[in-house]
Structure formats: structure tokens, C-alpha cells
Amino acid sequence: MFSNKINRLFTTQLREWELAKVNYGQLEKVKTKKLDFGNFEVFVQFNPERIRSSAANVDTKSIEARPCFLCEKNRPPEQRGVLFGNNLTVLVNPFPIFTRHITIPSELHTDQRIRNNFNTMLSLAKALPQFTIFYNGPQCGASAPDHFHFQAGNSGFMPIEKDFRNGRLAQQLSENRGIEIWKWTRYLRGIITLKGYNMEKLAKAFDSIYDRFAEVQSDRPEPMLNILAGHSSSGWIIHIIPRKQHRPTQFFDGGNDQILLSPAAVDLGGVIITPREEDFTKITKEDVEDIFGQVCFKENELL
Hints:
Number of helices: 11
Shape: globular
Strand content: 25-35%
Order of helices and strands: HHEEHHEEEHEEHEEEHEEHHEHH
Number of strands: 13
Helix content: 25-40%
Distance between the termini: 39 Å
Largest sheet: 10 strands, antiparallel
Strand order of the largest sheet: 3-4-5-7-6-11-12-10-9-8
Radius of gyration: 18 Å
Oligomer: single chain
């Protein structure tokens, strides 16, 4: 099984790669706190090693000035990988959020685009049922928008997974030939969820959603999306989170008003990553509600 290869990869990398060994060990000391919104919870994680991602300069000039850290020639010599399909490599992420955190880059240096890679995302989810696969668009939290990649973390870590299963916050809008479309309510984030067993039909439903938002955001390289996908005996569950803004105003504020938060799929899945302890300490429910409101569409704007 492919999952066994990834388990062996982790065992080997955490034994041989000192940076990864230290940082995964540090996860045991990561501070977390819970913000209770009544119908759901959001967790906040203080994780200083994630500063590289949260504060990454992703403007064109900065991207062109640095070597791509996902290209094989620029990876640390200790970093090993496992091939998936024709041109993806599964790597242990040395700056983890999850107890099992992987990055899955293309071997080709091509831009971060989901349009022709959605089926690959579903294939990854099926091959790694113990993981949730996630995609951050080029203007939605990807710190390497110039190099196509997915990431994944151990399933069950993000509250959105439990919140969907409990059935209180998502309403089924339709079912057509085994493909269910769900819409979330009272969740502060507009989210569309697809559920089903048939990859081709799921891809067709996704293309329809993609095309709709591509029309709304025709000036962008692709519609702004974060996507989470998992697979189990119940088929695939895919959470699609359309975006209207990359970073909230708090990211750019000065002094005590600044919260260095650049929301990506994990944050919108309910685990907010704060690389600075002062932000972890001061962030409130009101801050989270305001940030979600800035970067996400409202529920009634989606379907």
C-alpha cells in the first residue's frame, strides 16, 4: 500500500534528518487554545516555525529573486521523497503543523494551478486515506505560488472534518447520480462541499464551481480557492472554500494592531496558525470573525 511507503518515509526521515526530527519533537510543546463560537470551535496554534509560510513574500519580484525551495535541486540533501504518479513526489514537511505533515510538489517547475490537477488531488486522497489533502491557491496562502504542489496532514486534525460529519452546520442542496452538493450555514465561512464515489462526476461538479468563480475573478490567474479533500469508505468529501482576499487588514497593520495571519486551507479548516506568541495571546473570537469575513465569501454569496 502507498500509505505504508509514507509511514516508512517518516520513520527514516525523522531518524536521519535532524531538522525534521527536532521540529516534529517540538510539536509536543506547541501551545493551543480553543475559541468557542457556540455551534462550532476554532483552535489557535502558536507555532513559531511557521513564520516562513505565514510571512512569505509572494509578490512577483520576491518570487523571482529566490531559489524555489520545492525544486529538487534546491531541496536539503537530507530530504528524501516517494514518487506518486508520473511527476509528484511526497516529502516530509520539515516545518509541521500536523504530527504527520507532507508536501507533494510536482517534479516540474510549473505554476500553482488546480484546473487540470483536481483528479490528481482525489487520487492522492484515495491513496492516503489517513491524510487530508489540501490545496492553497496562488493567492490563497501558497508560499510557493510558482511551483505546483499539494500538502496533506493527518485526518481528523481540523474541526471542519468533525463539523461536517455531525450534520448540524451543512445542508444538502442536491444529489445527482450519487454526487451530493452541500452548503454550510452559521459557520462564518462560505463553503461548498462535494461528496460522492465517482471521480469523474466530482470533477465535473468541481469544474462548474471553478468556472463560476473564474467569471467573478477574471483578472486573477485562477479563482481564489482553498480545497480540502479526504477519502474513506464513504467516498470522497471535498470542501471548497472560495476566497475574495489573500490577507486580512490585520496582517498589514502596525504596532499592537497587527496580527501576522495569512489564512490558508488549515486556518479556514478551523486551526489558525499564529507564528508569533503575541498574536496567539491576543487573538479573540471577534478577530477571527472579522478575518474570516474579510477573506471568505459570505454563505449567501455562494449558491
